[in-house]
Design brief:
Layout lengths: L33 E10 L4 E7 L4 E9 L2 E8 L9 E8 L4 E6 L3 E3 L8 E9 L4 E5 L3 E3 L4 E10 L4 E10 L8 E10 L2 E10 L17 E8 L10 E3 L7 E6 L5 E8 L2 H17 L1
Parallel strand pairs: 1-5, 4-6, 5-8, 6-9, 7-10, 8-11, 9-12, 10-12, 11-13
Antiparallel strand pairs: 1-2, 3-4, 12-15, 13-14, 15-18, 16-17, 17-18
Length: 284
C-alpha cells in the first residue's frame, strides 16, 4: 500500500487490554504475525478527538483531515498482510457522541505466505450512544493460494448510527481466488441484529454456481444502521436485467437497518451498485 499525501502522522498512545470477542481464535502457528491495532474516538464537548491511535504490525494508523464533525483515520499497510498464519486484530471504538470514519489507503491483498494455515483478520467495531461510526475500507483481494478468515464483530448502542461497507475481489486477473470465509456479527442495544456467514473459493461447494455468484468475481455488502430508519422498508432490486451484476437492498428484522448485497464482474461495477444502494438508503 502506498501512503496517501492526505495522511499526517499522529503519535501512538498506551492502552489497556481489551478482552477477545467473537469466535475462539485458531491455535497459533510458528509462522505468522500477531498484531492488534486500536482506534478510539471521544467527544470532548465540542469536537471529536482521537485519544488513542495504536499502530501495530501491518496497521499504520494516520490522522486525516476532519470531514465535517467526524474525525478521520486512514490505515496504511506497513507490510504485506494478511499472509497464511497471521493473526490480525483491528479494534475501533467511537464513544458516546463521537463521530468517526475509518478507511484504508489501498486495497488489502490476502496472500498464501509461508504456510497454508488460515490467516485471521478480526475487525471489532463499537459505537456508543448518539455516536456515528463509518467503516469504509478499500477492497479485499483474495489471491490464489491464500486462506483467510475475516470476522466483523459489531456492538452498537440503541441511538448510534453505523455504516459498514465491504468489497471483495475473488482472485486477481486471470487467476482463481483463494479460500475466503467472512462473518458479520452485529448486536444493537445488546440484541442480535445480523449474523451472516459467507465462504468463497475451493474447497467450498457451489460457491461459483448460478445460485451464488454465477461467475461473478466481485462481491460486496453495505450495512446501514440508523434510528431514523425505524419504519417499514420494502426491498429494492438494483441492476436487474443486466449482465453487469445486481444488488438487493432490504430491511433487517431486528431494528432500523438496511443491508445491501451486490455481485458484479468488476470492482468498479460493484462500487457503482453499492453507491446506488447507499443513495437509496439515505433517501428513505
Amino acid at each position: 500500500m502506498n501512503p496517501s499525501s492526505q495522511l499526517a502522522p499522529a503519535p501512538a498512545t498506551s492502552d489497556v487490554g481489551i478482552p477477545s470477542t467473537g469466535d475462539q481464535e485458531p491455535a497459533g502457528h510458528f509462522y505468522g504475525v500477531r498484531a492488534t491495532a486500536r482506534i478510539r474516538a471521544a467527544h470532548n464537548g465540542r469536537v471529536t478527538t482521537l485519544p488513542q491511535l495504536r499502530s501495530d504490525g501491518p496497521f499504520h494508523l494516520r490522522r486525516m483531515r476532519p470531514h465535517g464533525n467526524a474525525a478521520m483515520v486512514g490505515i496504511i499497510g506497513a507490510m504485506s498482510a494478511p499472509l497464511g498464519g497471521d493473526r490480525l486484530i483491528l479494534d475501533i471504538t467511537a464513544e458516546d457522541r463521537a463521530e468517526l470514519e475509518v478507511t484504508t489507503a489501498a486495497a488489502t491483498l490476502a496472500l498464501r505466505g509461508p504456510t497454508t494455515d488460515a490467516a485471521t483478520y478480526d475487525v471489532r467495531l463499537t459505537a456508543g450512544e448518539h455516536a456515528r461510526l463509518r467503516w469504509l475500507p478499500r477492497p479485499l483481494i483474495s489471491a490464489a493460494g491464500s486462506n483467510l478468515r475475516q470476522t466483523y464483530t459489531v456492538e452498537l448502542a440503541a441511538t448510534s448510527r453505523f455504516v459498514l461497507r465491504e468489497e471483495q475481489l475473488l482472485g486477481r486477473a486471470d487467476e482463481e481466488p483463494g479460500h475466503l470465509v467472512s462473518r458479520i456479527l452485529v448486536h444493537r442495544a445488546g440484541r442480535p441484529l445480523l449474523d451472516q456467514h459467507t465462504a468463497y473459493g475451493a474447497p467450498e461447494p457451489g460457491w461459483d454456481g448460478p445460485a451464488v455468484l454465477h461467475g461473478h468475481r466481485a462481491v460486496g455488502q453495505l450495512l446501514v444502521v440508523d434510528p431514523r430508519l425505524d419504519h417499514r422498508q420494502d426491498p429494492v432490486l438494483l441492476g436487474e436485467g443486466t449482465k453487469d451484476g445486481c444488488a438487493v437492498l432490504a430491511p433487517l428484522a431486528g431494528g432500523p437497518a438496511l443491508l445491501a448485497t451486490a455481485i458484479a464482474p468488476t470492482t468498479s461495477t460493484l462500487r457503482e451498485l453499492l453507491d446506488e444502494a447507499h443513495a437509496h438508503a439515505l433517501a428513505r
